[in-house]
Amino acid sequence: MSSYYLLLGTNQGDRIQNLKTVMEKITRNAITLQEISSVYETEAWGLEDQPHFLNQACHINTDIKPLDLLSLLKTIEKDMGRETGEKWGPRIIDIDILYVDDLVMNHELLTIPHPGVYERNFVLLPLIEIAGEFVDPVKKITVDEIYDLCPDTKEVYLYDEEE
Fold first, then answer.
1. Of these residues, 15, 94, 120, 136, which one is catalytic?
2. What is the structure's pLDDT at 91?
3. Residues 6+ positions from 161 with CB-CB distance below 8 Å
4. Catalytic annotation on 96?
5. Domain spanning 2-158: which CATH class is it, in words?
6. pLDDT at residue number 87
7. What average pLDDT score do residues 47-71 get?
8. pTM for the whole thing?
9. Is the pLDDT reported for residue 161 higher than 80?
10. Which sequence spans correspond to the domains of the chain?
11. Could you confirm whether 82 is annotated as catalytic?
12. Taking the C-alpha atoms of 98, 100, 105 and 110 in order, what is their torsion angle to the nearest 10 degrees?
């Protein structure tokens, strides 16, 4: 059984419902949800002229191998209406594999740890909530410490569903 950390993101449609739906779909596939962060809102990163994103990190356990899980996650994205488009563009759902145990992997389809972990507050803040003490297998420091070194200046806010 492997321990995975994922990041979910959405900035199209009913963003809260998109996050709920994707977790339902993920956990239907021999995947056990261990923990999920609060929902965070941030300005778009990379391609900035688009709606704000909601992001959420989750910790799952599964026997599914990383490339097979990637394939499953891409199928879920497509089933939810994600279309291939502009890099960093708007999307109904995005699911990234951040970490798998202490695995370091550089495959043409998948890099673990996810390279964005080191430079994006919208990845780090939800992840800190559920895995702040997790030690990155490349940097050999905790997620909390990675956040302290992160060059990203974009604000990330705890999302208030009452707004």
1. 94
2. 84
3. 16, 39
4. yes
5. alpha beta
6. 62
7. 93
8. 0.94
9. no
10. 2-158
11. yes
12. -50
